[in-house]
Amino acid sequence: MPELPEVETVVRGLRTALPGRCIVSVRLGKTDFIDDPVTLGESLPGRRIAAVERIGKFIHLQLAPEASNGSTHSDAPSHLMVHLGMTGRLVVRAADEPAPPHTHVYFQLDDGRELRYTDIRRFGQMLLLRDAKIAELRERLGEDALTISADEFQRRLAGRRARIKALLLDQSVLRGVGNIYADESLWRARLHPARLAAKLKKEDIDRLRQAVQRVLGDAIRLRGSSISDFVDSNGQPGGYQRWHRVYAREDEPCYRCHAIIRRVIVAGRSSHFCPRCQPAPRTPGKPPAKRAARTRRTSSQKRFRRTR
DNA sequence: AGCTCTTCCTGAAAGC
DNA sequence: TGCTTTCAGGAAGAGC
What we know:
Helix content: 25-40%
Number of strands: 12
CATH class of the largest domain: Mainly Alpha
CATH topology of the largest domain: Helicase, Ruva Protein, domain 3
Mean pLDDT: 85
Low-confidence stretches: 284-308
Largest sheet: 4 strands, antiparallel
Number of helices: 8
Strand order of the largest sheet: 1-6-7-5
């Protein structure tokens, strides 16, 4: 499932292939994940891709201003935003290479290749935005997890009565972290996912920020985690899943203390942690036994295909 | 404010 | 063996 490191990996790959290329034509399959498929199909042909960047978990393709050849409608959207959702893939392939099933968008490029979007579950999104809307989106998505300062991180978490796990996943607080890297970061910072942010000490929050940035940085270096479907823009899997300390390791020993990794539901999300390294908060109303009862069945967890 | 539940979707695997 | 059920999850929206 693509989170910040996976999206960053894809963006870096696309950057070697796309800037300067012109979109010749667009072919669409299912379009229920595209905000405006008609405009997408009509306004992109002839446009040149100027730049590729990452905004949180979105891939942002910046389109060059339209050539002023008579029929210029200068308000044509210039930003194509792609969210990979759970199973989205964005790859560049030779146009004559067969596309995998569930490929729903084909952008034919002027170098004989195609930029293709494949998404089994179609939880992804494709949006066309005008300049003004980009600023709005950035605002809504909070500070980037990779670059947020210690002060800003404190400011955004301090006093919040939500569980720390919920806040890490909230893209309006911090952009880019998803379930895998939230769990890995909390393990590194030795914080239980159900701790309330308001009850954390300043040094806990500082340690958490360092853990988040360390984990994301390591994952980017290994080109992301491939669990289930992730591949980069060349179709290659990442390598960070081999370094996961808690995610999908339920019932296995903690690498630090050898206690058995557990999984509970926090903030509606499957959360993996070490019960010894990450002690549970004392919550008067909710004794640990009660939360334990909420643990879901475990065996199905093993079904994640680990790449290598 | 923040929690839970639901919805979207598919494929894999558990359960019977 | 084969059909049915369950489950994962990013994000948004409803309802409490």
